[in-house]
């Protein structure tokens, strides 16, 4: 088992390194580039042109996208779309869309009720509408929905004509898809928080005050230590949630709520502290910290606020 774990970690490390290298070249990565990198087909079966991987590998990419504050359509057109399609009963329609996503020939968006903030719907070739009853390929109208976070592309979707109903493999698939979306956002927030801690520590080493680096001051040390501890807890919760989603464990919903609530709140707190510790320059456009703070703030509300996640957890004890 130890050897298998080591081999698994090594593969994830290589995937993380390649993702970081690609995202370092350009924060805005187009859909064809994502397809050429093999990211959009990670969870697509091999016989359909994908990698046949699991959500654990997708989570690695989500974290790196957050670390780079990257602008891509990966969340809506790969993570959510492939997840929904894999949750459907096998059919020619499902397999065709999965193959076309893996090859980069099509972009598919997923609209969960109430359809107000749909990731990457604008420009999508197909929109899958998910309700409690199932999934339909619907004819929709799409209205771009500008938000504070300029790295995300969200839209309002209005269903004009429902398509043919597509059945989930089981009744709990809809809930699992929402948990999956929440954990993907938690991974992104973990990457955001880690990027902000790294930037703050690097700045504290070079910024001089009173003839010495500000990182030598006890208050700054304590602030960075607090950020590190909070991020360490986030990583433990996110790792547990990713594992639960990848293996479809019975307590996946609980772990997803814990990870989403804590990791997304932590990212906002860490980005705020990073801005403060950077001093005056932290409040300028040049520092770039505002990009991460806005992304963290949006992540906190996407697919379940911390308050709603805690409410769901509390219901288990009533």
From TrEMBL:
Keyword line: FAD, Flavoprotein, Oxidoreductase
Pfam families attached to this UniProt entry: Acyl-CoA_dh_1, Acyl-CoA_dh_N
One of the record's GO molecular function terms: flavin adenine dinucleotide binding
Transcription recorded as keyword: no
Names of required cofactors: FAD
Protein family per UniProt: Belongs to the acyl-CoA dehydrogenase family.
Protein name (Swiss-Prot/TrEMBL): Acyl-CoA dehydrogenase
SUPFAM superfamilies: Acyl-CoA dehydrogenase C-terminal domain-like, Acyl-CoA dehydrogenase NM domain-like
Residues of the Acyl-CoA dehydrogenase/oxidase C-terminal domain: 182-317
Domain Acyl-CoA dehydrogenase/oxidase N-terminal intervals: 16-105
């Amino acid at each position: 088992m130890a050897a298998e774990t080591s081999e698994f970690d090594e593969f994830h490390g290589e995937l993380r390194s390649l993702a970081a290298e690609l995202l370092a070249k350009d924060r805005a990565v187009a859909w064809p580039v994502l397809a050429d990198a093999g990211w959009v087909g990670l969870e697509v079966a091999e016989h359909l042109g994908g990698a046949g991987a699991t959500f654990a590998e997708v989570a690695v990419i989500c974290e790196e996208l957050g670390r780079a504050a990257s602008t891509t359509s990966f969340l809506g057109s790969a993570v959510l779309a492939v997840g929904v399609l894999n949750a459907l009963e096998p059919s020619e329609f499902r397999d065709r869309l999965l193959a076309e996503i893996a090859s980069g020939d099509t972009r598919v968006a997923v609209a969960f009720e109430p359809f107000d903030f749909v990731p990457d719907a604008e420009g999508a070739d197909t929109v899958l509408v998910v309700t409690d009853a199932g999934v339909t390929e619907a004819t929709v109208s799409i209205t771009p929905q500008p938000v504070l976070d300029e790295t995300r592309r969200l839209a309002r979707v209005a269903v004009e004509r429902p398509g043919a109903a597509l059945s989930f493999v089981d009744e709990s698939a809809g809930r699992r898809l929402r948990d999956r979306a929440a954990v993907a956002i938690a991974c992104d927030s973990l990457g955001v928080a880690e990027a902000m801690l790294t930037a703050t520590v690097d700045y504290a080493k070079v910024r001089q005050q009173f003839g010495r680096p500000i990182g030598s001051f006890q208050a700054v040390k304590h602030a960075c230590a607090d950020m590190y501890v909070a991020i360490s807890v986030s990583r433990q919760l996110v790792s547990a949630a990713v594992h639960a989603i990848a293996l479809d464990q019975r307590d996946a919903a609980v772990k997803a709520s814990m990870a989403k609530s804590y990791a997304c709140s932590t990212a906002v707190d860490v980005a705020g502290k990073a801005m403060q510790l950077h001093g005056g320059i932290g409040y300028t456009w040049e520092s770039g910290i505002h990009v991460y703070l806005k992304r963290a703030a949006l992540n906190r509300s996407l697919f379940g606020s911390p308050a709603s996640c805690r409410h769901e957890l509390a219901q288990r004890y009533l």
